[in-house]
Amino acid sequence: MLANYKILTVTHKHTQLKEIGDFVIKAADSRALKARLEALKAGFQLDELLYLPTCNRVMYFFTTAQPITSQFISRFFQSVNPELPTAALSQIEDVVQCLEGEAALEHLLDVSASIDSLVIGERQILRQLREAFDQCWEWGLAGNFIRLAYQQAVVAAKAVYSNTRIGEKQISVVSLAVQKLLNAGLNKNARILMVGAGQTNQLVAKFLVKHAFDDIVVFNRTLGKAEQLAALLGGKAQPLDALPAYTSGFDCLIVCTGATNAVITPELYASLLQGEKGRKVAIDLAVPRNISEAVVENNDINYIEIEGLRHLAEANLAFREQEVEEARMILKEYLQEFPTLFKQRQLEIAMRRVPTEIKAVRHKAVNEVFRKEVEMLDGQTRELMERMLAYMEKKCIGIPMKVAREAVMARE
Ligand SMILES: NC(=O)c1ccc[n+]([C@@H]2O[C@H](COP(=O)([O-])OP(=O)(O)OC[C@H]3O[C@@H](n4cnc5c(N)ncnc54)[C@H](OP(=O)(O)O)[C@@H]3O)[C@@H](O)[C@H]2O)c1
Known about the structure:
Elements: E1 5-11, H1 17-20, H2 30-43, E2 48-53, E3 57-63, H3 70-80, H4 86-90, H5 92-95, E4 97-100, H6 102-112, H7 124-138, H8 144-163, H9 173-183, E5 192-195, H10 199-210, E6 216-220, H11 223-233, E7 236-239, E8 252-255, H12 266-273, E9 280-284, H13 293-298, E10 301-305, H14 310-351, H15 353-369, H16 371-375, H17 379-411
Parallel strand pairs: 5-6, 5-8, 6-7, 8-9, 9-10
Antiparallel strand pairs: 1-3, 1-4, 2-3
Helix pairs in contact: 6-8, 6-14, 7-8, 8-14, 14-17, 15-17
């Protein structure tokens, strides 16, 4: 049933970005994340689950027949984060959006087309959605119904990107952050330490190359990826665990990893400072943040994080508002088409039994109902009969599927 599609989500629209971290699953690595998601799926009796954390939202998209009550939401997020602050728990209904059925699908389409993003039209979301789906599919968390909704969301988003100007003059969280970095008046030969070598820092790196920054050291958990990025930047690469021993000082720290705890702790920051006193620039685009709050509070830092990009993003929204309306019209068409696709899918699933049952009829006819007559046939006739039965079997499998599909279409 379409009504079984449910979304629980926390986004930039309903809370400060730094609070989103409280609703994200904290796991040391992908193995631990898989185990946590499996436990969530089993514990809450979800049929299918897709988990999507991005820089301005965390989304749990699942299918279940259960009603989503306030109690369900509280228990769900206490399970996601057993250390959820009491303040967050008491305001949970203001912060968590709960969407069901068509509203959930509409939200999924809005997210994929990037009209619900902090930076409207940012295409990174499609890549993030694809990666999230692939991972949940591979882990057996998402199944056919989530796949159907996901595929429709991707097709709809592509239609929006190709038929509107929403993604024109590509603006992203990263480009806005770099704009702020440039406004900070950083010297071209400023000493830059980059921590993390994932997609986000790769985008940051392209801007650093464009603006000719040339003194960069990249630290990453996997050294090979740090080396690749350093090569692009004409910089040096080091493994992440070499960071505490780094003694050459810095002017700018760019930190963005998938770690769900602070990578730059007060102790590490103090050690990186090497006793230098001047103002530093730091970019932290991770959700949850990768630079500890205590570092930002107790040091002289021009701190650039996603929340601070909100006003720049709003200016971007004003520019694209007209396009958002166009996008909504396109998405509506794809949303309206979905119930038919859904029924066809249900039908396909129901029809999976057809081949086995037809095979069983053939087997029974030959081996029980007409057994005596078949035994009296000569070899050549028997072979002809087998060939005819095989032909009939093949043709019969396709007929019910075709008829049922036509019936669904006729009813729409
Ligand atoms: N993609 C965007 O457009 C975008 C924009 C703004 C903010 N963000 C946020 O940026 C963060 C990273 O996103 P991404 O898309 O760049 O991710 P990504 O491409 O998956 O890369 C993740 C990076 O973090 C490192 N990493 C992962 N877990 C770690 C851990 N436990 N300890 C240390 N390093 C770890 C990875 O190291 P290995 O190479 O060793 O795996 C890799 O360098 C997320 O919080 C995301 O929400 C993303």
